Amino acid sequence: MSAELMDYDEAVKRFEPVLGFEVHVELNTRTKMFTWAPNEFGDGPNTNVTPLCLGLPGTLPTVNAQAITDSIRLGLALGCEIAEVCRFARKHYFYPDLPKAYQISQYDEPIAFDGAVEVELEDGTMVTVPIERAHMEEDAGKLTHQGGSGRIQGATSSLVDYNRAGVPLVEIVTRPIMGTEARAPEVGRQYVGAIRDIVKALGISDARMDQGSIRCDANVSIRPRGQQELGTRTETKNINSLRSVERAVRYEIQRQAAVLAAGGSITQETRHWQEAAGVTISGRPKSDADDYRYMPEPDLLPVVTPRERVEELRATLPEQPVARRRRLRAEWALGDREFQDIVNADLLDEVEQTVHAGATAQAARKWWIGEITRLANARETTVAELGVTPADVAELEALVAEGTLTDRLARQALEGVVAGEGSPREVVAARGLAVVSDDGALTAAIDEAFAAQPEVLAKIQAGKVQAAGAIIGAVMKAMHGQADAKRVRELILDRAQQ
């Protein structure tokens, strides 16, 4: 059952929201964090495992050097200081998907600390989110709950897959984020989106929230206006979309406000986001650090990063996503709404690559936001999984620009590309989709249409040129849609005067 909620505007009028986020980023290294087991998503359960992944006695971890490099680059992109010396620790807790009964993580010596991320809201407002730390750790396995709703509540049994156990993670922890006021939910969504954009730009993660390669825990507390002490926070776990981050933050603000207004108190606990119902539900009391019995990991040496190595990696950083968006917006000369549609659809990379392949920004936007997205939705898949490349889109637009295809024929060609029939030009050749450009053939079809509809011809000759639409329709039908309607209209008006 849903909790009582206070109206959102009333909630932020009476209480100040304070946010915090823990974003877990899975690195796309070839192997796992402390073992040579493959780091692959989607393989059969328990196929990418070694004795270390299963926590068998006598196994010893070895550090993945690429994961260290990726973690340093991410720390630098977050504006963090990089520790010259840091170490791993054991974080003890028992859960079936953690076979060692502890997780190798970092505690008091993270590899990156004291940073900040500039977050751009939809109206261009900039918000600085302070970063406390970004530390390295390994992921746990994955439980699949059987029976009931598929969640642990009401499940009759659970299956465990250790393929994810040991996958390298970087956990990015913010300091308390204050001053966001009524825009707190939007700030949450845009911040997690900024982290996703940064790791994609670095090339260190697949950054697929739907596949769990980025997971967000949202900490939310509220305090009465004028109170200095922070309120009790809740932690909503493993939110897996940007939209859900915004909704979960908003819901918790409203729920907590209703509890406090009724004279109750907030329980420090983890909560779980229920996407279908749009609510959070209670999980378990939140553990403090002491409960995890952290201790230095005895089987791993400290990680030492010389200053010159840090500077070498700093030189590899790509353009910051915020700066890139501003540059592209200016270069493409799109309206704010048009550009924001591309960003919201997460198609900035595709549009940019299509422009580089020769299309205009307007045309690239039209195809990716329009027809390609429609085809993906119709097939209940993602744009990425359709298999259409930026080069395909640029070639398709070139065929339209040179007059080989109309927009209607281009959509048919695109369907052929999606069906795996080849490039746009190959589909056009195989399907015979090219526009009929032979004026003789078009004139013959026009004459047939005039003969079938003499009254329309009479209207055109009388100066009622809008009547030409009926003849255009007949000609297009006769040409199976493979004619340029503009050219057909020109020939109709010319023919009618002869």
Q: How many helical elements?
A: 17
Shape: elongated
Sheet with most strands? 9 strands, mixed
Oligomer: single chain
Secondary-structure content class? alpha+beta
Measured as a percent range, the helix fraction is 25-40%
Head-to-tail CA distance between termini: 77 Å
In total, how many beta strands?
Answer: 16
| Count of discrete structural domains | 3
Q: What integer value in Å does the Rg equal?
A: 29 Å
In terms of DSSP E residues, the strand content is 15-25%
Identify low-pLDDT runs: none
Residue-averaged pLDDT, rounded? 89
Strand neighbour order, sheet with most strands = 2-6-7-10-1-11-12-13-14
Enzyme class: ligase
Keywords: ATP-binding, Ligase, Nucleotide-binding, Protein biosynthesis, Transferase
InterPro entries: Asn/Gln-tRNA_amidoTrfase_suB/E, Asn/Gln-tRNA_Trfase_suB/E_cat, Asn/Gln_amidotransferase, Asn/Gln_tRNA_amidoTrase-B-like, GatB, GatB_Yqey_C_2, Gln-tRNA_amidoTrfase_suB_CS, Gln_synth/guanido_kin_cat_dom
Subunit structure: Heterotrimer of A, B and C subunits.
In short:
The chain is α+β, with helices and mostly antiparallel strands and 498 residues long. It is 39% helix and 19% strand.
Can you offer a commentary on this structure?
- The chain is α+β, with helices and mostly antiparallel strands and 498 residues long.
- The protein has 3 domains: 8-313, no CATH class; 321-431, no CATH class; 439-496, Arc Repressor Mutant, subunit A (Orthogonal Bundle), CATH 1.10.10.
- It is built from 17 helices and 16 strands.
- Strands 2-6-7-10-1-11-12-13-14 form a 9-stranded mixed sheet.
- Strand 13 (269-274) and strand 14 form a beta hairpin.
- Helix 11 (390-401) packs antiparallel against helix 12 (407-418), helix 12 packs across helix 13 (424-431) and helix 16 (468-478) packs across helix 17.
- 37% of the residues are buried.
- It is an enzyme of class 6 (ligase).
- One of its GO terms (molecular function) is glutaminyl-tRNA synthase (glutamine-hydrolyzing) activity.
- This is Aspartyl/glutamyl-tRNA(Asn/Gln) amidotransferase subunit B.
